[in-house]
Amino acid sequence: xxxxxxxxxxxxxxxxxxxxxxxxxxxxxxxxxxxxxxxxxxxxxxxxxxxxxxxxxxxxxxxxxxxxxxxxxxxxxxxxxxxxxxxxxxxxxxxxxxxxxxxxxxxxxxxxxxxxxxxxxxxxxxxxxxxxxxxxxxxxxxxxxxxxxxxxxxxxxxxxxxxxxxxxxxxxxxxxxxxxxxxxxxxxxxxxxxxxxxxxxxxxxxxxxxxxxxxxxxxxxxxxxxxxxxxxxxxxxxxxxxxxxxxxxxxxxxxxxxxxxxxxxxxxxxxxxxxxxxxx
Length: 280
Prior knowledge:
disordered N terminus; eight-stranded mixed sheet; Cathepsin B, Chain A
């Protein structure tokens, strides 16, 4: 796993898949539910059944090549808007597919941006503090029982890293939150919302060519404000994938969703997306 460079997926995919399976079983068993005789265990919350998925994030340290893996259950997939340098806030148009590709691509982090590396932190502890007993640094102990018991306290400097995130266990309903209210995003960036979303093995961890299909079922727009604590929300939703309605406070209006998704007002204010998984 220390050979992982963010692109050679075959080097670590099997091991990560096994770790993912174990973590998912632990997550399911940790959710208390009612178990009836002769029935399988069910999650106590419909939220877990409909929206829970697994997020896997790997970080490869440039200095020591330590691969740190974080596996956790999630309910909302946050997607950053691409940083379009030199583009106008009102003319730049990005797509949800582009946000997904950016999310799952290998990202280069500087020393200031990275999450601390366990191995580098341990080496830094030896350099800066040390735990010296009778003239020997016991924090530097590496191979107990061998002749090479103590590691030399060489100077360690912080470096950058590579990071990549992927999904497993795609949920029946996928909730996507576009991160408009961040320091690097542009609130008026127009986002193209595809009616159908395709998640391949570049986003979903796996070694096959399967594709998970999602169909748009609802979206929420944040309008009339440039801060998340102000303004109000307008929601578009359907129950049959044919007839769509817009919910604006106490007003409910039947709309043509294809026209709405192409409108500038929706593209510049869409904030949360709800997709339903469908068969291919």
